[in-house]
Structure formats: C-alpha cells, structure tokens
Design brief:
Number of domains: 1
Shape: globular
CATH topology: Glutaredoxin
Helix content: 25-40%
CATH architecture: 3-Layer(aba) Sandwich
CATH class: Alpha Beta
CATH superfamily: Glutaredoxin
Largest sheet: 7 strands, mixed
Distance between the termini: 49 Å
C-alpha cells in the first residue's frame, strides 16, 4: 500500500464515518450505542445538541500488530488492565496534539492498571522517525490496513483519526470516540472505569454515565 493510497483511505474513512454516524441526538439510543465527540463537563455544550454516535463492540477485539522493535504483540498481553487504545498517524495533527495528554494519563494512572496503547495507522519508517524525535512513554504498535481492521474491530465501520477505544479491566468496551480526547473527557471516563472496578457501579451504568457525561446530559441514576 503506497503513501497516497493510505492517506486517501484514512481521509475517506474519516469523511464517510462522520457523515454516516453524525446525527442530532442528546440521548442514549440503546445499550450498545455511545455518544462521541460532544463536550464533556468543562468543554462547553455540544453545538445545537448535536453529537456523533456509533455502534461499538461489546468486548475488545483480538488482534496482533508489530511494535516499534518489529516484534509481534497481541492485545491479550494486556489482559487484566483497562485499555485506552489510541489509533493515530504521524500526518494527523490532532493525533500529535493529544499525545502529551496521553503520556500524562499513562504516568498518572499506571497504579490503576489503566494502560495507554498507541496504534499507528501509518508506515513503519515514518512512525519510527517520528517517535525518535518525539518519544512516548507507552507502547506503540504499527500497521497499515491491518491497523485499520483492528480499529474496525471495536465496532466502527469507518474510522477517522484520532480514534480511541476505552475498555474496562475485563475487556468490555465502554466508549469509542472519533476525534481528539481532552482532559475533562479522559477524567470522566477514567472515573467510571475505576468506579466499575471498585464495584460502585455495574457495566451498564458505567457505559451510561460515560455516554451522558460526554453528551453533557446529567445522569439521573435510573
């Protein structure tokens, strides 16, 4: 797959994904639907109560990709940890912009067994060159079409970047998001992950709390 084809494919995926899943709603429409890219607390309301929704997988997909050393790594290696699986590319400005936050989250939440995992949908040489200049403190896997397939395994037919999937410590998918992640959003999701692990809430409530919080809708606890 040459550079032009990969960039066109990812760009087309972004346009197709947003146009397919972007519609007006401020409510949870079903047990397996997440609100994506609206404002969390502290980020301001979503414009015209508009949010992006997508169908997410119930459980984390099983995939393997090469890491920066060339070794094949299975996502199952991180069983028992809550995962933040961030799909990115070197030519994606929002992807690069959110990396410092991801590094902070990795350092702050290691004791909570929450693992940041980067998946570069890009050419290996470009990724290695970028990371040599801008290193990160979390594992990075690299792929082209196989990385796109991994992203789609989280339940999104088309994927733009950055795309981030959040799981609990048992591998259940709690939230999927197309677009840059911001600190208020991350804090909301991580609080739900930790409350779920502590037994303060169940899986369904964790998903609902995240969806409502991301959409700026107060949860009524029903």
């Amino acid at each position: 797959m040459n550079r032009t084809v990969l960039i066109v494919l990812a760009s087309a995926a972004l346009v197709a994904g947003v146009s397919t899943y972007f519609y007006k709603t401020a409510e949870l429409t079903g047990p397996d639907t997440d609100q994506v890219m609206p404002a969390a607390k502290g980020m301001g309301p979503a414009s015209n109560a508009t949010a992006t929704s997508m169908r997410r997988a119930e459980v984390r997909p099983d995939f393997s990709l090469a890491d920066t050393t060339g070794a094949m790594r299975s996502i199952n290696e991180w069983d028992g940890k809550a995962l933040v699986v961030n799909f990115w590319a070197t030519w994606c400005a929002p992807c690069r912009r959110e990396m410092p936050l991801l590094m902070e989250l990795e350092a702050l939440h290691a004791s909570d067994d929450i693992q940041i995992l980067g998946v570069a949908v890009d050419f290996r040489d470009d990724v290695l060159s970028y990371l040599a200049e801008t290193p990160v403190n979390y594992p990075v896997l690299i792929g082209e079409q196989d990385a796109i397939d991994a992203a789609e395994g989280f339940g999104v037919e088309f994927v733009g970047m950055p795309f981030t999937a959040f799981t609990d410590h048992r591998g259940n998918v709690l939230h999927v998001q197309i677009g840059e992640i911001h600190r208020p959003q991350a804090e909301l999701i991580f609080e739900a992950i930790n409350n779920l692990r502590a037994g303060n809430i169940d899986l369904a409530m964790a998903r609902r709390v995240i969806a409502h919080g991301m959409a700026g809708v107060p949860d009524q606890g029903k």
